[in-house]
Amino acid sequence: MANSKSPEKPENENNTQEKSMTENNNVGTEEPEQNSTSKTETEKQKETAVKEYKQQALDQSEEMAEEIQKMIDQAGMTNNIQVDFNQQYVQLNVQGALLFDSGKSDVKPEASGNPR
C-alpha cells in the first residue's frame, strides 16, 4: 500500500502546516460576531434616527399646511383650494375656475396677482 503522506515532509512538519493553516483561517472569526452585534445596534440606531427624521418632516409639513389652510379660510377660498401634505411636501390643489375663465387659456388677472 502506498503511504498517503508526502514522503518529502516529516509527519511533524505536515501537522505544523495544517495547524498553522487552521489558525490562519480562524483569525478574526470571533470578532465578526461582535461586529454583527454592533452592526445590529447601529442599524437600530439608524432606523430610529430615520423614523425621528421622518416624523419631524411630517410635523413640519402639517404645521405649514395648517398655516396655509388658515390663510385660505381667511380669504374665503376654502371651496376652491384643497391642502394636502406628507413628510416631503405640502400640496395645493386649485380649481381651474379660480385661475381661468371658462374656455380660456389665459390666467385671470386677479389670479396672477397683477390686476389689470
Question: What would you say this structure looks like, in words?
Answer:
This protein is mainly alpha-helical. The protein has four helices and two strands. It has a two-stranded antiparallel ribbon. A hairpin with a 4-residue loop joins strand 1 (81-85) and strand 2 (90-94). The longest helix is centred in the middle third of the chain and has 45 residues, at 30-74. The protein is elongated, with a radius of gyration of 36 Å. The model is unreliable at 1-7 (pLDDT under 50).
Topology (SSEs and partners):
Elements: H1 11-26, H2 30-74, E1 81-85, E2 90-94, H3 96-99, H4 109-112
Antiparallel strand pairs: 1-2
Briefly note the structural class of the backbone: mainly alpha
End-to-end separation: 111 Å
Please report which band the strand proportion falls in: under 5%, 5-15%, 15-25%, 25-35%, 35-45% or over 45%.
5-15%
Whole-number mean pLDDT: 77
The percent of residues in helical segments reads 55-70%
The radius of gyration over CA amounts to 36 Å
Count of alpha/pi helices: 4
Number of strands: 2
Q: Which sheet architecture does the biggest sheet show?
A: 2 strands, antiparallel
User: What's the helix-strand series?
Assistant: HHEEHH
Low-confidence region ranges: 1-7
Q: Spatial order of the strands in the main sheet? A: 1-2
- Structural shape: elongated
